[in-house]
Amino acid sequence: MKVLVFHIGRERYGLPLAAIVRVLPVAQLKALPGAPDCVRGLLDLAGQPVPVIDLSRLAGLAPDAVCYDTRILLVDYRLDDGSTRLLGLKAEHVSGVAEVPVASLADSGVAAAPFLGQVASSNGGMLQLVEPAALLTPDVRALLFSGEEQE
Prior knowledge:
One of its GO terms (biological process) is chemotaxis. InterPro entries: CheW, CheW-like_dom_sf, CheW-lke_dom. The structure is a single chain. By secondary structure, this protein is mainly beta. The chain has one domain: CATH 2.40.50.180. The protein is 7% helix and 46% strand. It has two helices and nine strands. Strands 1, 2, 3, 4, 5, 6, 7, 8 and 9 form a nine-stranded mixed beta sheet that branches. Strand 1 and strand 2 form a beta hairpin.
């Protein structure tokens, strides 16, 4: 499986390429007052507002300064009613694409952060997958996509 490799703090993570709609450079975001720390704001994508989550803050870390290799990864986020909406993920130190053999993936055995999935070891060290479907708690999902899900 091909993954886009990035860092959260000093650790390596990957997002399956199949989950990524588009990769953008960091852009100006509109702040959302009262939103949780992990919500960085709204991205204006050709007139469409796209909420952006900071993966470092979601993991409980302070965000690094924006660097030349910081990107916003757009993914299709599936809502409870089966529809999808774009969700931006601010990822720091994006280093490129890597091939992760599916056979090398193993459960981490740790449930500290529900959005973190299986791990694989390689010459570059351990890499953990990010699970887009588990990124948002129900409260954050309701905040970002209110009025868009059917009750």
